[in-house]
Design brief:
Chain A: The chain crosses the membrane at residues 24-46, 58-77, 113-131, 137-162, 169-191, 222-245. The complex is a heterodimer of chains A (253) and B (333). With 253 residues, chain A is an all-alpha fold. Chain A has helices at 2-21, 24-28, 31-44, 54-76, 78-87, 89-94, 100-126, 135-162, 168-183, 196-203, 206-218, 227-252. In chain A, helix 5 runs parallel beside helix 8 (135-162), helix 7 (100-126) packs across helix 8 (135-162) and helix 8 (135-162) packs parallel to helix 12. Chain A is globular, with a radius of gyration of 19 Å. The two termini of chain A are 21 Å apart. With 333 residues, chain B is α/β, with parallel strands linked by helices. Chain B has 2 domains: 2-225, P-loop containing nucleotide triphosphate hydrolases (Rossmann fold), CATH 3.40.50; 230-298, Alpha-Beta Plaits. Chain B is built from 11 helices and 14 strands. Classes of the chains: A mainly alpha (253), B alpha/beta (333).
C-alpha cells in the first residue's frame, strides 16, 4: 500500500509538473466548454427558451457543461500514454518496479485536478451571467467530477493500451465513445423532452445518471433521489476503469 | 547473473503463430560484457525484452540477478537497468526531473534521488542540460540521458538495446567511452544488442551471435574469428587458367583444402597473410600469372556470420553497419 501511494504521488507529480509550467494550456483547453457556456447558455436563458428564469437555467446548464468538460478532457488523455508508448518512455518506466495501478492512478488524478481548476473557472465565468453558485453544492459536484474524471481517464488509458502500437484506432474509438455518452446524457438539453427510444438509450448511459446527480448537488439538494444513482454510476465507472486499465498495463508489459 | 534455458517467445499474428525466439540458452557471469549480435529480426531485442520482464516468455525459463523473470519480475526489475532502443526521457519533462522521478520509481527517497540525479548529470557531462527538455537535445546528448536513466538506482546489471543506433560516428565513440568508463568504475555486468560488427568486435568481451531466433555462436571475438582458420589472401587473375595456377602455388603457402577458387578469384586461409602476400605475389609473377587485384585481411565477425549462415550480416536487411542510419528508430527484433 505504501509503494502504491508513493508511486501514485510520483506519477501525479511527473504529469502535473509540465502543466503547471504552462498553465495557459489548461485555459486554452477550456475554449470549447466556454463557447458552449456563452453561446448555448445565452440561447437557453433567452426569453423564448421556455426554460424559466436565468438563474434556474444557469443552475441547470453549468453542471452539464462541467460534465461535458469531464468527458472531453479525461476521455482523450490516453493519447499521452500512447505517445509515450510509441516514443519508448513507457517501456523505460515499465522496466522499473513502479506499481502499475499507481502509474495509472497518478496519471488520472492529474486529469482530475486539471478538471477541477477548469470547473472553478467555468463557475467563475458563469457567475456574471446570472449563476448564483451554492458553494457546498458546487464543491460536492466537483468531488463527483473528480472521481468521474479518474474513471474516464482510466478508460482512455485502457483504449490507448489496446490501440498500441500504431494507435490508429485510439481517436476513432474515443469519438465513438465520447459522442454517444455526451449526447445521451442530457448535458446540453433535457433528455426527458426526447422520444421514448432516446430515453431508453439514456437509461443505459451511466453519464446520464451522473448529470442528474450533479445538477441536484449543484443546487444544494444533497438528499435528492437523483444523487445516489449518480454516485453509484461514478463509483462503478471509476472502479471498472482503474481495474481494467491496470490489468491491461500489466498484460501489455 | 543471467541463466536462461530454452527461452522462447512466439506471437500470434494474422491467425498464425510466429516464433521470434527458439529456445535460447544463455549464461552471463557477473562482471561480463556480452554483446548479442545479429541482423534485425534475429530475436535479439525480443530476448532482451524477456530478460528485462517487458515480455513474458512463452517457453523456457530465465533467472536474472537471481530471480525468475516469470514468477518474480518485481525482483528482477529492482536489480537491472535498461536502456532501450528509443529515447526514454519524456518529451515534455525536464532532464533532471525525469532522472529524479526515475529514482523515485526505484524507491529512492526524494533527497537521495536528487543527489543521484545530480551525480549522474555531472558524470555524463549533462549538468548544463539539466533544465532542458529532451526534444531540444542532440541525439548523442539524449542517449547520455537514456544511460543516466538506466543507472539511477546503481543496477548490478545493465541492458542496452542498440545503444549507439542512429548516432553519428563521433557520438557513437563518445557513448561507448562513457559506457566502458562506467563499467570500469562500477564493475556492472553489461548485456547489449547491436548489429554494428565493429562495435561488437571492439567492445564486447563475449559475442553471442543470434540468427533467426537461435544462438548460432558464442565466444570471445578472437576465438570466434580464430575458428575460421586465420587470415585471408584474396587475389583475382586475368583468366580462370591463371587462377588454377595461382591455386596450386597458393597450396604451398597453406594446405590445399584451405585454398578456394571461384572463376578468376583465389582465396587462401593462412597465418599472417600480411607477411605472406608479397612472397605469394612474387611467386605468381615468376610463374607468369597476371594478377589484377590482391588483398590480405584479418577475419571479421561478418566472416564468422558468413561461415555460419551462408550470408553476410550486413546483407541481412540491416542498415550499413559501417555507416549507421540516421533514423534512431529501428524495428524491434
Amino acid at each position: 500500500m505504501r509503494k502504491f501511494l508513493q508511486d501514485t504521488v510520483t506519477s501525479f507529480h511527473r504529469e502535473i509538473r509540465p502543466e503547471l509550467r504552462q498553465p495557459w494550456g489548461i485555459v486554452l483547453a477550456m475554449a470549447q466548454p466556454v463557447l458552449f457556456l456563452v453561446l448555448f447558455g445565452s440561447v437557453l436563458t433567452g426569453p423564448h427558451s421556455g426554460f424559466g428564469g436565468a438563474e434556474t437555467t444557469w443552475q441547470w446548464f453549468v453542471p452539464g457543461i462541467l460534465i461535458m468538460m469531464c468527458l472531453v478532457g479525461p476521455l482523450s488523455c490516453g493519447h499521452q500514454l500512447l505517445s509515450e508508448s510509441s516514443g519508448g518512455q513507457l517501456e523505460r518506466i515499465l522496466v522499473t518496479p513502479v506499481h502499475r495501478a499507481a502509474l495509472i492512478t497518478g496519471r488520472t488524478l492529474k486529469e482530475s485536478v486539471t478538471l477541477c481548476a477548469q470547473a472553478v473557472l467555468i463557475i467563475a465565468i458563469a457567475t456574471p451571467f446570472g449563476l448564483t453558485p451554492h458553494i457546498p453544492g458546487a464543491l460536492a459536484t466537483m468531488l463527483l467530477l473528480t472521481v468521474l474524471g479518474i474513471g474516464l481517464s482510466a478508460f482512455s488509458h485502457l483504449l490507448a493500451i489496446a490501440a498500441r502500437p500504431s494507435g490508429n484506432l485510439f481517436w476513432v474509438a474515443t469519438q465513438l465513445l465520447l459522442f454517444p455518452l455526451m449526447l445521451l446524457s442530457g448535458v446540453l438539453l433535457p433528455i426527458s423532452a426526447g422520444p421514448a427510444w432516446l430515453r431508453g438509450l439514456a437509461a443505459v448511459n451511466p453519464v446520464a445518471y451522473v448529470v442528474d446527480a450533479a445538477r441536484a448537488l449543484f443546487a444544494g439538494q444533497f438528499l435528492a433521489p437523483a444523487v445516489l444513482p449518480g454516485v453509484v454510476a461514478v463509483a462503478v465507472v471509476t472502479a471498472l476503469g482503474l481495474g481494467l486499465a491496470t490489468r491491461a498495463l500489466r498484460r501489455g508489459s | 547473473m543471467i541463466e536462461a534455458r530454452g527461452l522462447g517467445r512466439s506471437f500470434r499474428t494474422g491467425g498464425q503463430t510466429v516464433v521470434a525466439v527458439h529456445g535460447i540458452d544463455l549464461t552471463v557471469a557477473e562482471g561480463e560484457l556480452v554483446a548479442l549480435l545479429g541482423p534485425n529480426g534475429a530475436g535479439k531485442s525480443t530476448t532482451l525484452r524477456m530478460l528485462t520482464t517487458l515480455l513474458p516468455p512463452t517457453a523456457g525459463t530465465a533467472r536474472v540477478a537471481g530471480a525468475d523473470v516469470r514468477t518474480a519480475p518485481e525482483w528482477v526489475r529492482t536489480a537491472i537497468g535498461y536502456v532501450g532502443q528509443h529515447h526514454a526521457a519524456g518529451e515534455n519533462h525536464r532532464v533532471r526531473d525525469e532522472l529524479v522521478t526515475q529514482g523515485r520509481w526505484y524507491g529512492l527517497g526524494p533527497r537521495r534521488s536528487r543527489q543521484r540525479a545530480d551525480h549522474l548529470l555531472d558524470l555524463l557531462d549533462l549538468t548544463a542540460l539539466a533544465t532542458r527538455r529532451p526534444a531540444t537535445l542532440s541525439g548523442g546528448q539524449r542517449r547520455r540521458v537514456d544511460i543516466a536513466l538506466g543507472l539511477m538506482h546503481q543496477p548490478r546489471l545493465l541492458f542496452l538495446d542498440e545503444p549507439s543506433a542512429g548516432l553519428d560516428p563521433r557520438s557513437r565513440a563518445d557513448i561507448w567511452a562513457q559506457i566502458l568508463r562506467l563499467r570500469r568504475e562500477h564493475g556492472i555486468t553489461v548485456v547489449l544488442t547491436t548489429h554494428y560488427l565493429d562495435e561488437a568486435d571492439r567492445v564486447a568481451e563475449r559475442v553471442v551471435i543470434v540468427d533467426a531466433g537461435r544462438v548460432i555462436a558464442d565466444g570471445t571475438p578472437a576465438r570466434l574469428k580464430a575458428a575460421l582458420g586465420g587470415d585471408q589472401i584474396r587475389i583475382t587473375t586475368e583468366t580462370p587458367a591463371d587462377a588454377g595456377v595461382a591455386a596450386s602455388i597458393g597450396a604451398r603457402f597453406t594446405t590445399p583444402e584451405r585454398v578456394g577458387t571461384d572463376g578468376t578469384a583465389v582465396t587462401l586461409r593462412l597465418v599472417r597473410a600480411d607477411r605472406e602476400l608479397p612472397r605469394f605475389l612474387r611467386e605468381l609473377d615468376h610463374a607468369g600469372v597476371t594478377v589484377t587485384t590482391a588483398a590480405s585481411s584479418r577475419p571479421s565477425l561478418d566472416d564468422v556470420f558468413l561461415t555460419l549462415t551462408g550470408r553476410r550480416l550486413r546483407e541481412s536487411g540491416d542498415a550499413d553497419p559501417v555507416h549507421p542510419a540516421t533514423d534512431p528508430v529501428h524495428p524491434a527484433s
